[in-house]
Amino acid sequence: MEESFSQKVYRYLTAIPEGKVVTYGMIARAVGHPRAARQVGNALHRNPKPGVIPCHRVVNREGRLAPAFAFGGLDRQAELLRAEGVEVVKGYVPLEKYIWEGE
Q: Are 89 and 97 in contact (CB under 8 A)?
């Protein structure tokens, strides 16, 4: 049985190491749908296993946190990232320092 788009997104997210972030667009490209960054966001919003599938490690292409982070809001996303050693400054993660380029 073929994986759904959301399942591919969730599988990719579980590979992101602690202390690193990726963008919505990076995930879309990695799962074979390069123009589906918004759909990635929709999948993250429906994350069936928060805390197991680390959707807090996803930021926009500029490093900005998600204002509508589904599991506690922007402050909670920042808290989770900081707990992993990721710097968050005024709602942004410096991508040059924390971006994960994949396996």
A: no
Q: Which two tokens stand for residue 52?
A: 């197991």
pTM: 0.94
Give the HSE-up count for residue 25: Cα atoms under 13 Å, Cβ half-sphere.
6
Residues 6+ apart with CB under 8 A from 7: none
The alpha carbons of the chain give a radius of gyration, in whole angstroms, of: 12
Q: Which residue has the tokens 């992993």?
A: 84
Catalytic residue positions?
55
The angle that helices 5-15 and 37-45 make with each other, rounded to 10 degrees, is 80
9-68 residue pLDDT tens: 999 999 999 999 999 999 999 999 999 999 999 999 999 998 899 999 999 999 999 888
Q: Where would I find the H helices in 1-103?
A: 5-15, 24-30, 37-45, 73-83, 95-98
- Tell me how far apart the alpha carbons of residues 39 and 24 are, in angstroms, rounded to a whole number: 9
